[in-house]
Write a structure and sequence with these properties.
The protein has 165 residues and is mainly beta. It has one domain. It has 1 helix and 8 strands; from the N terminus they run αββββββββ. The longest helix is centred in the first third of the chain and has 17 residues.
């Protein structure tokens, strides 16, 4: 019994010392970094803040030839009083072959409405090449009458080096 236990311990030590800890793990920790944030102002004083975030889990392994990348692009609408109205987020999942190409494997969207007069009329998300594309229409009603419509298209792109834009 001691001999078998000794052999198992030696084998375990040998195998674990040969295989690097990150050989089969492409990512090691969760990061949620804002890549870019811009603001677009409109003539009525309202504005949209666009935020691109990298939600990739960890950094790619040095041994990984391809890795996955997850990102979001969010349009958040505000009125002229700086009150948030709604937000529309497109999430893209990408397969990156560094320096060669990237393809979008999946796209989804989320909607958050914070101002009661606004509602979502329609929304969708699609993938195309290296892009996650979301479209949505938001409407504002007062006393049951539509007084404002905002149609948006949000495109999240991931280049061959894994950069989100």
């Amino acid at each position: 019994m001691k001999k078998i236990l000794s052999i198992l311990i030696v084998l375990t030590i040998t195998v674990t010392s040969i295989i690097p800890a990150n050989a089969n793990i492409a990512f090691t920790e969760t990061t949620g970094t804002i890549v870019k944030e811009t603001t677009e102002y409109f003539s009525d004083g309202s504005y949209i803040v666009t935020t691109i975030s990298d939600e990739t889990t960890g950094m790619p392994s040095t041994r990984a030839s391809m890795y996955t990348k997850t990102g979001t692009k969010t349009h958040t609408a505000y009125n002229s009083n700086d009150e948030e109205l709604w937000s529309f987020t497109v999430r893209g999942y990408f397969l990156v072959n560094p320096g060669i190409q990237t393809s979008c494997t999946s796209a989804s969207y989320t909607i958050d409405i914070t101002e009661d007069a606004w509602s979502n009329k329609s929304a969708s998300a699609t993938k195309s090449s290296n892009k996650a594309i979301g479209t949505a229409t938001f409407i504002k009603k007062l006393l049951g009458v539509t007084v404002s419509t905002r149609e948006i298209t949000v495109t999240l792109t991931c280049d061959a080096n894994g950069n989100l834009s």
